Amino acid sequence: MSLPAETAASLSLADRARRAIGDTNLQTALAKVTAALGAEGTAARTDPDMVERRRRGAAIRREVLDDLDGWLDRLQAKLESLGITVHRAAGPDEARRIVLEIARAEGVKLAVKSKSMATEEVHLNAALEADGIEVVETDLGEYIIQLAHEMPSHIIAPAVHKTVPQVAQLFTETAGRPLPDDRTALCAFARERLRSKFLAAEMGITGANFVTADTGTIVLVTNEGNGRMCTSLPRVHVAVMPVEKVLPRFADLGVMLPLLTRTATGQRLSTYVSMITGPRRPGETDGPERLHVVFLDHNRRSLLGTPYQEMLCCIRCGACLNVCPVYRRIGGHAYDAVYSGPMGAVLTPLLSGGSEGRDLPDASSLCGACSEVCPVGIPLADLLVRLRADLRTPGPAVPPAPPWPGHQADPGAPVGFPGDAPGRPSDAKPGARAARRLGFGAWARLWASPAGYRLSAAAARRLGRVAPPALIRHTPLVRGWGEGRDIPLPAPRSFRQRLAARREDGW
Amino acid sequence: MGTDVALFVTCLVDQLAPDAGVAAVRLLEAAGCTVAFPEAQSCCGQPALNTGEPEAAAVLARHFVEVFEPYAAVVTPSGSCAAMVHHWYPRILEGRWAERAEAIAARTYELTSFLVDRLGAAEDIARAAPLGDGVTVTVHDACHGLRVLGLKTSGRRLLEAAGATVVEMAEPEQCCGFGGTFAAKHGEISAPMADDKLAQAAATGAAYLAACDSGCLLHLAGRRRRTGQGPEPVHVAELLGRALPVGDQR
Q1: Is the pTM of this model over 0.90?
Q2: What does DSSP say about strands B33-36 and B74-76: parallel, antiparallel, or unpaired?
Q3: Residue A94's Cα: distance from chain center in Å?
Q4: Does residue B123 form part of some domain?
Q5: How far is CA A84 from the centre of its chain?
Q6: For residue range A349-408, what is the model confidence (pLDDT) as tens digits?
Q7: Given B81, B114, B147, which residue is the final one in a domain?
Q8: What is the CATH number of the domain that holds B51?
Q9: For A21-65, what is each residue's pLDDT tens digit?
Q10: Which of A177, A376, B77, B113 could be joined to A313 by an S-S link, Cβ 3.0–4.6 Å?
Q11: With an 8 Å Cβ cutoff, is B106 touching chain A?
């Protein structure tokens, strides 16, 4: 986290936003990167060759979700036939325990990681480090934020909030010798550092961009080649795979890979695409001796059959962040969540079962730029509107799903991470919530009556014109409006008064 | 000739921006329409929906359906309120109410789109409301009209036909930061978004920042009064209405 955890959690979303808007380094970095990446996302939406690819990609994602448990069973059978060990984790705690137990059994002292939002989501590093295992992020952006003890501020560009001089300072502290404000020199330093880690690590940990059910192939998209190093050098490879990442067919990659890379960065294909189909076979010179895949549910299956199922179509391209006018202004850390931007504002309260990010759906002007750019057609703005309603009452927006058939709940003590503690302070007070509900209900009934509208509007107009400015400034909602804008006075005569007068003597 | 339309003026225009409503009536009449104003109308319900109170919004949605069902066409000077009817009414209402709402949505139009795309009346408007050369306008594409209804050209078409020069700002499709209750709840984010919009509009050198949604315009005007930055925010209808002859021409 960019702020000490207790500070970030104690600040409201509004205060975190104010802080971000006042940070000139952040504003410079955000404007530059979101403009560049946003233009790529927009081009990927409108280019003629992408229109059909978007349509097909959206259909493939929905084909998976219509029978997710079935596809997972078929995928598991295929993976096991290839000699891969499959684990199922109901939530972050089980996922951490599974990886930790593998690491212990293998005597792992050093693990190298390829960039993975799923492992960020379950806070895997903290659990391994608490057990004395050194964990090194090998994606350059992730390496930077690991050194800075921060969360990713963008799902595909985790260190987007940092300027080159800030990185130089960070690397200088790490190196114990001065390093220049020069990208090439800084990359060379990271490369040198990471190379020794790749060679020494016993375990490689990755996420999975896609996993194909017919061939059992784990697909990783990177631009630095670090994913390939993590999956070929260490003797054990663990891939943490959120359940929705399954694709029916290897052939679907022909649609999904360019859909992801074009929308994310404008690349027709990423510099590296690693495809792993089983551990090292006899006669092969590299690859892990043992390969584990962890299916991560974390409330995803509870979304099936609800309007929020659409969110599971997400392929983590980051396009919705780049075009979001709110993200472009406040950046990722203001969301105080692993996932930020519109997709994060939807995903965070859903994955956490309502214990995190309950105020994030409010961090949107509902402009719909996210829904428009989304390569798989997720109606993000609509889901934000729905969440505002479904998070009114305490608890999750949707009821939890039953566990996988035969899945035993993890019996052990939790493998802790403080961020998992439920009830982080972000929720409106229950009293305020009830008052809001009553207030809007009464208002709607009043305005559904012609006399009610006329009389209440007339009263408000009179009040608005005669009330002391100090009183107006302290009216809820009006106060927020007045923070940055003059409050409009009601017109001297309403439209309908002028229309009535017109019948007498014209406009 | 002679199209009968019902005007849904919207609560914001009724109470806070009546000039846009008056202009809407006069432009529709200039295009040959007979304009009815059902007195029982109030608000589309969007403030409630966007605050997370869909049940309250549904009360007003059902009210809208009852008020406007008798009319062959419903025209409103707000892309956002029209989008509420089109997109959300069938989703927040159920059963028969949803069907009735869909039927009305199919004949509910944003004002400039109705004038240009439905009536093909840009030239009639131009004759009635000649803005003349030398008027430069930059157009903000209000989000819901743009992304829900697909409106992009009709406002510009009316302005250009009337003689104005439309100059595009860098990101006309970027949200201005209004967002309904978002503007009040997150003023700290909303106001800087208005600054971005006003700065881009100012960079064009245009005299006016026009849009087809009074919510955006009230927000931008309120920010502009605070900071003094940017051209005058004005509804497309209101700008054209200023060029109509003084007094009632009926």
Answers
A1: yes
A2: unpaired
A3: 21
A4: no
A5: 28
A6: 999 999 999 999 999 999 999 999 999 999 999 999 999 999 998 899 999 998 888 787
A7: B114
A8: 3.40.50
A9: 999 999 999 998 899 999 999 899 988 989 999 999 999 999 999
A10: A376
A11: no
Q: Return d(Cα B75, Cα A48) in angstroms, integer.
A: 34
Can you list the positions of beta strands (E) in B121-222?
A: 136-139, 165-166, 208-211
The boundaries of the domain holding residue B24 are 3-114
Domains of chain A: 66-303 (3.40.50.10420), 434-505 (no CATH)
CB contact at 8 A, A328 and A31: yes
Q: What is the ipTM of this complex?
A: 0.96
The count of structural domains within chain B is 2
d(CA A480, CA B27): 35
List CB contacts (< 8 A) between B189 and chain A. 17, 21, 326, 329-330, 363
Q: Is residue B190 within 8 angstroms of chain A, CB to CB?
A: yes
CA angle in degrees (0–180, nearest 5) for A357-A358-A361: 90
| Cβ within 8 Å of residue B37, ≥6 positions away | A496, A499, B6, B7, B9, B25
The last residue of one of the domains, among B49, B83, B114, is B114
Same domain, B17 and B43: yes
Span A268-305, pLDDT tens digits: 999 999 999 999 999 999 999 999 999 999 999 999 99
Q: Is residue B121 part of a domain?
A: no
The residue of chain A nearest to residue B36, with distances taken between CA atoms, is A499
